[in-house]
Amino acid sequence: MTSREKKAQLRAERLGVRDSIAPEIRIEHSLAMAEFGGDAITFEPGTIISGFLPIRSEADLRPLMARLKARGARLCLPVILDRQTIVFRELITGQDLVDTGFGTRGPGPEAPVVDPAVLLVPLSAFDADGHRIGYGAGHYDRAIARLREKGLVPRLIGIAFDCQEVAHVPFEPHDVGLDAILTESGYRQFRG
């Protein structure tokens, strides 16, 4: 089995398990993530942090993002421009959210495009070494590469439920590892 095939298999398995979590349990897990991450994620006031709004069976980061904002973070959300590109638009209180592709919502084109210093990254699977499997489209990998081309080194914090951890993620040279993971059990740093 190739690395790509193994990743596809792990992605399907772990997303299937995540999908089976009852909605009320996902809410409890999301609130636990806000408790753990609300204090454990370190940053200076004014730091731009990218979150995301939940689609399908993802964790709901809105409670966590509210805690980070209360501590002085500037928030942004990913917006899909096309099949290859996401940008991060600032999330401004009172501004309407619009459909931004692939079932997501985010700030409209009038919102400033920003470069986050911390990315809360959705994923399909992760391992104890901080390797991750995304959803397969490569949006975050390309966005991270663009930030790095600008000389920026964003901190990458994976967002997942415990059930998405696997023994080993096939890791290739082009893959971008996580600095930390936040689950309903707590916040774990891998590097940095």
What do these coordinates show?
The structure is a single chain. This protein has one domain (3-189): 3-Layer(aba) Sandwich (Rossmann fold). The longest helix has 18 residues, at 23-40. The chain has helices at residues 3-19, 23-40, 62-70, 139-149; strands at 48-50, 74-80, 86-90, 97-101, 104-107, 113-114, 118-122, 125-126, 132-133, 155-159, 180-183, 186-189. A hairpin with a 5-residue loop joins strand 8 and strand 9 (132-133). The radius of gyration is 16 Å and the shape is globular. The strands form three sheets. It has an eight-stranded mixed beta sheet. Strands 4-5 form a two-stranded antiparallel ribbon. The mean pLDDT is 93. It is an alpha/beta fold. Helix 2 (23-40) runs parallel beside helix 3.
